[in-house]
Structures are given as structure tokens and as C-alpha cells.
Amino acid sequence: MTTLILGWAITVAQVLIGLAMGCATWRILDGPRAQDRVLGLDTLYVNALLMLLTFGIQTGRTLYFESALVVSLLGFVGTVALAKFLMRGEVIE
Amino acid sequence: MIQAPDLPPWAALIVAFLVVAGAIFALIGSLGLVRMKSFYERVHPPTMGSSLGVALIALASIICFSVLRSRLSVHEVLIVIFVTLTTPVTFMLLGRAALYRDRTEGADVPPAK
């Protein structure tokens, strides 16, 4: 019984995070300026990380934890590089 | 696909509550990203998902794996520490880049102080 509740809760959480990813994607596509698109991309990364964590709880494997760690790392580096590019016009000076 | 690990009832209920709460916070943050009007307002809402959302879902994952293996398993703390440390840094850089771009165009920006 509680396993069924947990299964439904995880599925509902995945749908909600999917909607959140949709909102972030809408901001990437619509965003009036470049900084709005970068902000949407960063939010999309964090939501993808949350989605991977829920997959990890669902399947009981640690494989998803490692990919979530890689996603958080790449999201940080990517957003910092894009912000630097918006400011200076080049990433490495 | 309805699938869940075989946890004892108390742990299953706690994990279910934490996962749904974290997902709701992430959704509220992303909705704020869509609904706010200017860029400087839009920087604020996503931090809700990347602080409280990540913390709650990582706590759910810690409880789930600790109960499943009947030993303490805290490697999700790594993700929480990393995201909590890096989010302010990235958003400050992004905000400064946006300020710089707006000022060079002579647009209406928040004052310097």
C-alpha cells in the first residue's frame, strides 16, 4: 500500500518537474534578451538534476546520482562561461 | 510507469512527502521565471528550486538509500553543497553581465548603490 503511494508520489513529482522544465524551456525560447535565455538554461539544468534524483529514488540505483553530479558541474561551468561571454565577448582572456 | 523501491511504511511516507514538496518548489520557481516582468526580477525565483527543491529531494534520496541498505548513505550531500555554493556565484555573474549590457545601451537600470 505505502509502496503504491510512494510510486504515485514519485510519478507526480516527475510530472511536476517536467512542467518546470517546460517553463524553463519556454523562457529559453521566448526570452527577450540573451541573459534571459542563459537564466532559463541554468534553471533547466537544475530541474534536470532534480529529475535525475527522482529517477534514482524510483529505481534504487546510484547510477543516476553520478549523472546528476555531472549535470550540476556542467551547468555551473556552462552558465559561468556564458555570463562571461555576455560581459566581455570572449570566454578566456 | 508506477515503480518504487520496497521501503518500510514510515520511510515510504516520508520519502513521498519530501519528493512531492521538492518538486512543487521547483515548479513554483520555474513558474516565477515565466511570469516575472523584467530580467532583474526573474533572477530571483529559480533560486527557490535550486535551494529548497534540491535540498528536499536530496534529503528524500538520502533517507531512501539509507533505509534500503540499512547503513548511512549521504553522498547526495555533495550535490546539495555544490549547488548551494555555485548558484549565487553564477547568478551574480549573470546579473553583472546584464547590468553591463543594459548600461552600455543606456537603458533604464537599477541604480548603482
How would you summarize what this structure contains?
The complex is a heterodimer of chains A (93) and B (113). Helix content of chain A is 87%, strand content 0%.
Characterise the protein shown here:
The complex is a heterodimer of chains A (93) and B (113). Chain A has a single domain (2-88), classed as Helix Hairpins. The model of chain A has no long low-confidence stretch (mean pLDDT 89). In chain A, 42% of the residues are buried. Chain A is mostly helical and 93 residues long. Chain A has helices at residues 2-30, 34-59, 63-88. Chain B has one domain. Chain B has helices at residues 9-35, 39-42, 46-69, 76-104. By secondary structure, chain B is mostly helical. In chain B, 36% of the residues are buried. The mean pLDDT of chain B is 87. At the A-B interface, helix 1, helix 2 and helix 3 of A face helix 1, helix 3 and helix 4 of B.
Q: What topology emerges from the helices and strands here?
A:
The complex is a heterodimer of chains A (93) and B (113).
Chain A: H1 2-30, H2 34-59, H3 63-88
Chain B: H1 9-35, H2 39-42, H3 46-69, H4 76-104
